[in-house]
Amino acid sequence: MSVGVPNRLYAAITGIGGYIPANTRSNSDLEKICDTSDEWIVKRTGIKERRILEEDLATSDMAVRAIEDLAAKYNKNLHDIDALLVATSTPDMPMPATANIIADKLGLDNVWAFDMNAACSGFLYALDLGASLIETRRYKNVLVVGADNISTYVDIHDRSTNILFGDGAGVVWLEPSTEGGIMDAYLRSNGSGRSFLNIEGGGSLYPMDAEDAMADKRFLKQDGKTVFKHAVQSMSDACFQVMDRNGLTINDINWLVPHQANQRIIDAVGRALDIPEGRALSNIEYLGNTIAATIPLCIWQNLKQIKTGDLVMLTAFGAGFSWGASLFKWMI
Ligand code: ACO
């Protein structure tokens, strides 16, 4: 097996942090609001509850807390950050970027900060861009955040979406390393999938003051079955691509961290890859789908299992459609 290239400069993850709101929305809460049941939700999705951000807070507040968690645990000085990349589909506001707001709340007034929207694949996209910045040798400390306040866009009365989504934020710190780090990423998108998963209202096509946007276009809509089918196929294909071009088999991968959309999707991808039992990590049961935050939060909550030198493969699928997989050696 090949696990890296000699003399290559890698971007290594040297810190990870997370934040999940205190408020919970359980299946029994949803039973009181719409025609559903705890039994159906657990069987069809594996989700028991989700976290919901307080109404007077926004995506940036969760991201700030995740970054503060990372800085405290790994003894990092936030003033060392050269670039702050924020993957989110739920920015605090259309302009400026949520990354700017986060930087300001952290007291960073001289940092390159910007947002990236690739829905549930956002963290993978931003991680690869962050790694590329390190590989140019022009950036030494890059923060990659995945954060979403998706509950704002979920119609609480729509049982096809209210069962799935919750809020949260996760973050990793990237630094140069000659020993190992992010090894590869395969990222793709196909915009013809946009009709199957979207939030139409609030953009320049359907501004929020338009009557139809206020009426029904402000909420997340999806064709669940179509999304499910594409998610399993695309995530599995992306993982095979990454393993093939790195000369690896599934036995070389210590941990698979799939986007947490539905436990049945996670299980189906695991079966397609034939990954040994217990090596596909999951934390969907108590968080649901937190969009760009699922992958860093899943690593953050499973840190005790991941050992230095382990090979970790990430994979995600989301609106766009957008999807991909990436591979790294855990260096902490
Ligand atoms: N409670 C109870 N019954 C329900 C519910 C519910 N919440 N939702 C649907 N049903 C019923 C349906 O009416 C249907 O009844 P019928 O057989 O009498 O017609 C039956 O249950 C089956 O419905 P399906 O829609 O076929 O259920 P499915 O197994 O496909 O599960 C789900 C639906 C959970 C939405 C699933 O399709 C899914 O998870 N899809 C992927 C969605 C996803 O991952 N989206 C996010 C992508 S990431 C991003 O970028 C945002």
What does this 3D model show about the protein?
- Residues 243-330 form the Beta-ketoacyl-[acyl-carrier-protein] synthase III C-terminal domain.
- This protein has helices at residues 27-33, 38-45, 59-74, 98-105, 122-135, 211-217, 224-245, 263-273, 284-287, 294-301, and strands at 10-19, 24-26, 49-51, 83-87, 112-116, 142-148, 168-177, 182-189, 197-198, 221-222, 255-258, 311-318, 322-329.
- A five-stranded mixed beta sheet has the order 1-7-6-4-5, sandwiched between helices. It has a four-stranded mixed beta sheet with strand order 8-13-12-11, with helices on both faces.
- It has two domains: 10-180, 3-Layer(aba) Sandwich (Peroxisomal Thiolase, Chain A, domain 1); 184-329, Thiolase/Chalcone synthase (Peroxisomal Thiolase, Chain A, domain 1, 3-Layer(aba) Sandwich).
- The protein contains ten helices and 13 strands.
- It binds acetyl coenzyme *A.
- Acetyl coenzyme *A binds at residues 36, 40, 44-45, 119-120, 159-160, 163, 197, 222, 224-225, 227-228, 231, 261-262, 289, 291, 318-319.
On the 0 to 100 scale, the average pLDDT is 96
Beta-strand percentage range: 15-25%
- Distance, first to last CA: 22 Å
Uncertain segments of ≥5 residues (pLDDT<50)?
none
Structural class: alpha/beta
